[in-house]
């Protein structure tokens, strides 16, 4: 009771919220691509109708279905706050993180379609086999490579040098970019945007000395030269990384050998 | 909370009807999953050395710039200037090819356009032909056609005889 404002809110609060809790909910349809190899070899669409707050996220809707309607619905999520990269899925035909997509932003008046990301083997419902994706990630050696003795102190880096690769440090390995790439859809041997982004993060790091090796790997038949600059990856990235720009910078580094 | 569940398979009585599949697949005998084309595995061959892809990528950009000048100039001369398309005949071509400048122009345009187009088709085939065999034979067909056209064109430019009957 320290301020008048709080008093007013308190007195009006319970009644309002009780009324609101019912009135602000909307009815929406979630159309989910279901696949269960233990039941059928065909995937099929299934509609779920639920009452939910439009300010909730797609992930909340999926939770509500799994917890209250159909416990067999299978999807990945870990942190549920847009940082673990587990719940990338194709929502209304676009790759997004279910935990960062608000229902009110994707027109809840029409059925919202939810599919697994493309170009990877679907194991069940929205869960795909991420192994080829991580294999490409491992192939670009995403770790610090240095020569000589370890320094006794930390490796110094200027703010400008850090800024050089800042954009690509934001990757959370959700595979939204790689699974939106039409080249990757047709040829899984292509490294894909995410692997190139993570190579970029070390190639342009002033402390790293493995740049030449990584560039050599990406100079391969299935490396950066397969990029057709369709910008699907940049559009898909939930972290706002300019993926296509990063790929172009790797191409430029390969031609000029300056990085 | 209202719950309505409709499956498309239930609506259209197609092959995916649950009653059929239940007898076919269970926990011990799951259905085969659909693997994406040319999946990357741990056994995928490591990077091959060589700058071929980089060189073709650079060639596409550089030849593209040169072709803009060559092709637009060609179209302007052939179709717009000095009476337009109606002037083109054997005599017109013979007159132009009497000069080494136009011989070099046409030769450069032939080679650059053919290699530019062939390389573009090569990348399309690489992107879209799924099976190794299909890819190989499509590319062989492409290379044969390209070599034939380039050689024939070059032969004509160099051995052109204005007095032929």
UniProtKB/TrEMBL annotation, chain A:
One Pfam family it belongs to: Fer4_10
Protein name: Succinate dehydrogenase iron-sulfur subunit
Keyword line: 2Fe-2S, 3Fe-4S, 4Fe-4S, Iron, Iron-sulfur, Metal-binding, Oxidoreductase, Tricarboxylic acid cycle
Domain 2Fe-2S ferredoxin-type: start-end pairs: 26-120
Cofactor dependence: [2Fe-2S] cluster; [3Fe-4S] cluster; [4Fe-4S] cluster
Listed EC numbers: 1.3.5.1
Enzyme class: oxidoreductase
Keyword Disulfide bond applies: no
Molecular function GO terms recorded: 2 iron, 2 sulfur cluster binding; 3 iron, 4 sulfur cluster binding; 4 iron, 4 sulfur cluster binding; electron transfer activity; metal ion binding; succinate dehydrogenase (quinone) activity
Pathway(s) it belongs to: Carbohydrate metabolism; tricarboxylic acid cycle
4Fe-4S ferredoxin-type domain boundaries: 161-183
Reactions it catalyzes: a quinone + succinate = fumarate + a quinol
Native source organism of the sequence: Streptomyces qinglanensis
Cofactor: binding details: Binds 1 [2Fe-2S] cluster.
InterPro entries xref list: 2Fe-2S_ferredoxin-like_sf (IPR036010), 2Fe-2S_ferredoxin-type (IPR001041), 4Fe4S_Fe-S-bd (IPR017896), 4Fe4S_Fe_S_CS (IPR017900), Beta-grasp_dom_sf (IPR012675), Helical_ferredxn (IPR009051), SDH/FRD_Iron-Sulfur (IPR050573), Succ_DH/fum_Rdtase_Fe-S (IPR004489)
One example of a Gene Ontology biological process annotation: respiratory electron transport chain
Family: Belongs to the succinate dehydrogenase/fumarate reductase iron-sulfur protein family.
PROSITE patterns linked to this entry: 2FE2S_FER_2, 4FE4S_FER_1, 4FE4S_FER_2
TrEMBL record, chain B:
Keywords annotated in UniProt: Heme, Iron, Membrane, Metal-binding, Transmembrane, Transmembrane helix
Parts of the chain that traverse the membrane: 58-81, 101-119, 140-160
One GO CC term on file: membrane
SUPFAM superfamilies given in the database record: Fumarate reductase respiratory complex transmembrane subunits
Molecular functions per Gene Ontology: metal ion binding
Main location: membrane
The organism's place on the tree of life at top rank: Bacteria
Xref: Gene3D superfamilies: Fumarate reductase/succinate dehydrogenase, transmembrane subunit (1.20.1300.10)
Compartment annotation: Membrane
Region of interest (Disordered), ranges: 1-24
Keyword Transmembrane helix attributed: yes
Keyword Mitochondrion: no
CDD domains reported in the protein's UniProt record: SQR_TypeA_SdhD_like (cd03500)
Protein name (record): Succinate dehydrogenase / fumarate reductase membrane anchor subunit
Provenance organism: Streptomyces qinglanensis
């Amino acid at each position: 009771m320290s301020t008048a404002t709080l008093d007013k809110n308190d007195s009006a609060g319970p009644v309002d919220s009780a009324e609101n809790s019912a009135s602000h909910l909307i009815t929406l349809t979630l159309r989910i691509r279901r696949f269960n190899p233990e039941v059928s070899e065909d995937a099929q669409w299934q509609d779920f109708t639920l009452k939910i707050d439009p300010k909730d996220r797609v992930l909340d809707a999926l939770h509500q279905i799994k917890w209250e309607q159909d416990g067999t619905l299978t999807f990945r999520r870990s942190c549920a706050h847009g940082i673990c990269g587990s719940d990338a899925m194709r929502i209304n035909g676009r790759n997004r993180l279910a935990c960062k997509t608000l229902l009110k932003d994707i027109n809840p008046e029409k059925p919202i379609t939810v599919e697994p990301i493309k170009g990877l083997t679907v194991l069940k419902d929205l869960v795909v086999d991420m192994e080829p994706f991580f294999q490409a990630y491992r192939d670009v050696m995403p770790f610090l490579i240095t020569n000589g003795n370890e320094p006794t102190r930390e490796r110094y880096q200027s703010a400008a040098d850090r800024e050089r690769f800042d954009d690509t440090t934001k990757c959370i390995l959700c595979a939204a970019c790689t699974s939106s790439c039409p080249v990757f859809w047709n040829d899984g041997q292509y490294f894909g945007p995410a692997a190139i982004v993570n190579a970029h993060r070390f190639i342009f790091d002033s402390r790293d000395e493995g740049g030449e090796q990584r560039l050599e790997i990406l100079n391969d038949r299935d490396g950066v030269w397969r990029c057709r600059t369709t910008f699907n990856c940049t559009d898909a990235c939930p972290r706002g990384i300019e993926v296509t720009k990063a790929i172009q910078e790797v191409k430029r580094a390969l031609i000029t050998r300056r990085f | 909370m209202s719950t309505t569940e409709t499956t498309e398979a239930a609506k259209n009585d197609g092959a995916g009807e649950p009653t059929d599949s239940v007898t076919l697949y269970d926990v011990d005998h799951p259905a085969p999953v659909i693997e994406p084309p040319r999946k990357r595995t741990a056994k995928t061959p490591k990077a091959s050395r060589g700058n071929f892809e980089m060189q073709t990528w650079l060639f596409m950009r550089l030849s593209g710039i040169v072709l803009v000048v060559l092709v637009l100039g060609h179209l302007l001369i052939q179709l717009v200037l000095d009476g337009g398309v109606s002037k083109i005949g054997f005599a017109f071509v013979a007159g132009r090819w009497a000069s080494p400048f136009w011989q070099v122009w046409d030769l450069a345009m032939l080679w650059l356009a053919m290699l530019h187009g062939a390389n573009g088709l090569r990348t399309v085939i690489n992107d879209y032909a799924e099976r190794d065999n299909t890819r190989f034979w499509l590319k062989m067909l492409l290379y044969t056609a390209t070599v034939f056209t380039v050689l024939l064109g070059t032969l004509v430019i160099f051995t052109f005889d204005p007095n032929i009957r």
